[in-house]
Amino acid sequence: MTKAQPTLGTLIRQIRTSHSWTLKEMSEKAGIPVSTLSKVEHDRLTLTYDKLQQLSRRLNISMSDLFAESEDPVERQVMGRRSIGKVDRAVRVKTPNYDYHYLCTDLRRKRMIPILTRIRAKSVEAFGEFVRHQGEEFIFVIEGQIEVHTEFYDPVTLGEQQSIYIDSTMGHAYIVAEGCEEALVLGVCSSEEDGLMDSLINLHGDR
After folding, report:
1. What is the CB neighbour count within 10 angstroms for residue 134?
2. Residue 138 pLDDT grade (very low, low, confident, very high; cuts 50, 70, 90)
3. Exposed e or buried b for every residue in 140-153, given b needs 16+ CB within 10 A?
4. How many CB atoms lie within 10 A of CB 74?
5. pLDDT tens-place string over residues 180-202
6. What pTM was estimated for this model as a whole?
């Protein structure tokens, strides 16, 4: 039987119960209102990156622990893993430039990270320092138009149904094209090295 995909609410509830904390006790330790924690545990609300970072810091747990992952070593060895990605079950991370939805987070130790991203940055100046991380990535434009800026190539504009594949160690930035308020893209980041998810999560903190 296929296990149900753990949600952020399930993970937070597991952390709380493992310490035998009440909602009120966890609220006091994390600095997050009881009502908010209750809604998160029942999957009626998610947390922004700032709140996830606060939870991680005040409870002394790793940010990556807030992303679902099986601890069963035997299960990780089984080939033919499968995960159904749904936006309403994705882990959401909001930054000034992007609104990320990490899909299929129950398979966190994987070589490809699928991310649905809402792009809001309207200029390279507003974006700030280019992003760099291990591996490669593929971006497919679903809605709107984007400009892709990289440190070694001239900017390129991509419209709906167009895509780009780049080396992620090269500095890069995605912004919306002129006349476009927002754009929606599907990105897939990959790496032969372990720890790609942690690398991406840490980038949000740097920003």
Report:
1. 16
2. very high
3. bbeebbbbbbbeee
4. 7
5. 999 999 999 988 766 676 667 66
6. 0.63
Strand order in 98-102's β-sheet? 91-94, 98-102, 112-119, 183-190, 136-143, 163-167
> d(Cα 57, Cα 92) in Å, to the nearest integer?
18
Cα→Cα distances 83→30, 53, 58, 150, 200, Å: 31, 26, 31, 32, 20
- Nearest to 123, CA basis, from 198, 173, 73, 54: 173
Residue type present at position 90: A
CA distance 189 to 139: 9
pLDDT digits (tens, 9 = 90+) for 64-89: 677 655 444 444 455 577 888 888 88
Joined tokens for residue 182:
């927002």
Which domains does the chain possess? 8-66 (1.10.260.40), 81-206 (2.60.120.10)
Q: Please write the tens of the pLDDT for every residue from 116-126.
A: 999 999 999 98
